Amino acid sequence: MLTDFEPYVDEEKVAQILAIKRREVIERARRGELPAHPLPPFSVVRAKRRKWRFKISEIVACMDVRKPAGSDTIGIGSPRRQKEKSG
Predict the structure, then answer these.
(1) Would the pLDDT of 76 be above 50?
(2) Cα–Cα distance, 35 to 61 (Å, whole number)
(3) How many structural domains are present in the chain?
(4) pLDDT in tens, 3-62
(5) Could you give the CA distance from residue 83 to residue 79 in angstroms, rounded to a whole number?
(6) What is the CB-side half-sphere exposure of residue 11 using CA atoms within 13 A?
(7) Residues 39 and 33 sit within 8 Å (Cβ to Cβ)
(8) Does pTM surpass 0.70?
(9) SS3 assignment, position 2
(10) What's the Cα-to-Cα distance from 55 to each of 60, 63, 82, rounded to whole Å?
(11) Least CB-packed of 19, 28, 29, 80 within 10 Å?
(12) Which structural domain, as residue segments, surrounds residue 6?
């Protein structure tokens, strides 16, 4: 059934959601800290660079597991940045 379909998003969208840099999203995906789905390289010549795609529901579930007790946000940006947003 197609009602369970969830589109994949790129690292730019995940970076916006988590309030971190795009590069940090890629590094965390490589280290296995974020649930990610690697795409196969499109060219043999440029096989070193891998594209990643993410599912928002998996990112949210991952952050729910890691968030500290009493926290009501899923963002993992720096505390300084979060303080600037709230103040």
Answers:
(1) no
(2) 9
(3) 1
(4) 678 899 999 999 999 999 999 999 999 999 999 998 877 655 555 667 889 999 999 898
(5) 6
(6) 19
(7) no
(8) no
(9) helix
(10) 9, 13, 24
(11) 80
(12) 2-86
